[in-house]
Design a protein that fits this description.
By secondary structure, this protein is mostly helical. It is about 70% helix and about 0% strand.
Amino acid sequence: MNVSTARLGQGAGIAAAAAGAIYIAVQVKHPAMTVESATTADWVVRNTAKTVMSALVLVGLTGMYLRQQAKAGIVALVGYLALSAGFLMMFAATFMAAFALPTTARTDPAWTGDVIAAAFKGSAGGDIGALTTVFAVTGAFYVLGGLLFGVATFRAGVLNRWAAALLAVGNVATAALAFLPQSFNRPLAVPTGLALIGLGLSLWRDQRGAAAHPASTTRTAPARPAVPVR
């Protein structure tokens, strides 16, 4: 079975749009980030969904970058690598939250509370190893990568410009969470989710057109001079 590049691009677009929808959905009526919440089924379901979302974003970003790499230049590459690293670390963090913290919340609530505090407030009262640094680096890559990739995508003009601008603005806006109450965490995720939906649908439409009208790869062999019969 042959799968064309355009079909892969369509799949990447669908992945990005689905990731954006999940990113927005998990914010609705999100429980407080507490040790008590970590023991609930709601916590497991939401963080499992975030883990799936992070994986889908990596697929979508790859498709977006490959589609526009010729026009977007080095800025897009740096932004793609940084934003992908941010979501890769987010994948690891949400995986841990879904499948490890529900257990440690019962066996070691103090350590679990420190991990949650470091993830959402930037500091922990106890020793959680390198996790505080990992969370900080994740945030830095998320902000910087979103800004660079969004700006490069906007300038390239291959995918929806409004969605590219929203990605840049939405990701940078999350840096303000260091100074805002925790209640702002959920609303500030919505612009990035909408940007992913817009970019994903734009990529899907673009690649659907490419699949419907593939460039001809058949080349006519050059004519050869007649060979006289002797």
